[in-house]
Backbone:
């Protein structure tokens, strides 16, 4: 494929207090990445230029050279600025402002059709909160920026895919937050992505219980009987192929998991633990329901190794590869 025909992908730099900018620069400078897409990195140019110099990578402002010569350096789209108070290894208001500005600009590029998809480097929810975005993650922020009310988070590691009924909700509130209509919408978003994004004609969904032993018929609690089972029945009436609910310790086992194209978890850790138990560098986060293609590496900001230049870029490479593949399948990359 000619360089000029490669899909253009925007990568937001993430929280500068963490490893996001480092893994983004490392991944985007790799020949295997440059062979599948025409990337741009979104963030503060002067900061990224300094970090790139430390890593032995050349960057340039987007538009400085013709696209055909872009292999001479990594193009950076200016967004935001580095603020005082940003230090490696910790969340900060400045880190949240810089990361947030990069996300906003990347979304603008995608909504305008200038890029085929975006990949977001890790951010800190605490930093975003300090910057005034609220205690949100990428999923909620992308929903707001794209004007989308119905969206969902899916994590993927090879054949295992997990969709989350709730995301960043405290465990003690999950039962109160779950409701039948929202759960049915999550089923529909998962099924639609599996069809359009992955080409699976009749997706099979497996559904987790919320409570141990699925509530023991209501003895332990009632969410299964009142919310989850009725939602499954509604999904089936809408011609979705859904099974469950199953206890999480059963559905993620080797016998059951391969039966499903995706598994719907009721809360954050219920789905995160099994998908991150092995080969975390292969985990990719995908946002369902929004009008743009967005992926992210499955790991966090890595504050404990920030500025040491030892961060592993394989998760970012996996996220970029998945973004390109989805963009091609869904027609965003033309």
Residues:
């Amino acid at each position: 494929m000619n360089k000029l025909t490669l899909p253009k992908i925007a990568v937001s730099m993430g929280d500068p207090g963490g490893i996001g900018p480092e893994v983004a620069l490392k991944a985007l400078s790799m020949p295997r990445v440059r062979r599948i897409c025409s990337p741009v990195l979104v963030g503060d140019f002067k900061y990224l230029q300094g970090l790139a110099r430390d890593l032995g990578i050349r960057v340039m402002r987007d538009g400085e050279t013709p696209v055909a010569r872009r292999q001479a350096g990594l193009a950076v789209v200016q967004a935001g600025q580095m603020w005082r108070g940003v230090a490696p290894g910790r969340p900060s208001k400045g880190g949240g402002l810089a990361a947030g500005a990069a996300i906003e600009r990347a979304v603008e590029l995608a909504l305008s059709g200038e890029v085929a998809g975006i990949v977001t480097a890790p951010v800190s929810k605490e930093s975003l909160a300090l910057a005034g975005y609220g205690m949100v993650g990428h999923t909620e922020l992308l929903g707001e920026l794209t004007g989308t009310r119905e969206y969902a988070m899916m994590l993927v590691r090879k054949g295992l895919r997990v969709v989350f009924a709730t995301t960043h909700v405290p465990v003690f509130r999950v039962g109160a937050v779950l409701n039948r209509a929202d759960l049915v919408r999550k089923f529909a978003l998962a099924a639609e992505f599996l069809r359009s994004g992955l080409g699976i004609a009749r997706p099979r969904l497996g559904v987790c219980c919320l409570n141990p032993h699925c509530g023991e018929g209501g003895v332990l609690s009632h969410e299964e009987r009142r919310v989850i089972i009725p939602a499954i029945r509604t999904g089936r009436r809408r011609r979705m192929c859904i099974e469950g609910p199953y206890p999480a310790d059963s559905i993620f086992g080797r016998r059951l998991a391969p039966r499903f194209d995706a598994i719907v978890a009721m809360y954050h850790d219920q789905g995160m633990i099994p998908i991150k138990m092995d080969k975390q560098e292969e985990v990719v986060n995908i946002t369902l329901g929004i009008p743009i293609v967005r992926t992210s590496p499955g790991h966090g900001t890595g504050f404990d190794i920030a500025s040491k230049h030892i961060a592993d870029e394989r998760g970012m490479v996996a996220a970029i590869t998945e973004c390109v593949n989805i963009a091609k399948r869904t027609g965003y990359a033309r």
Notes: The chain is about 35% helix and 15% strand.
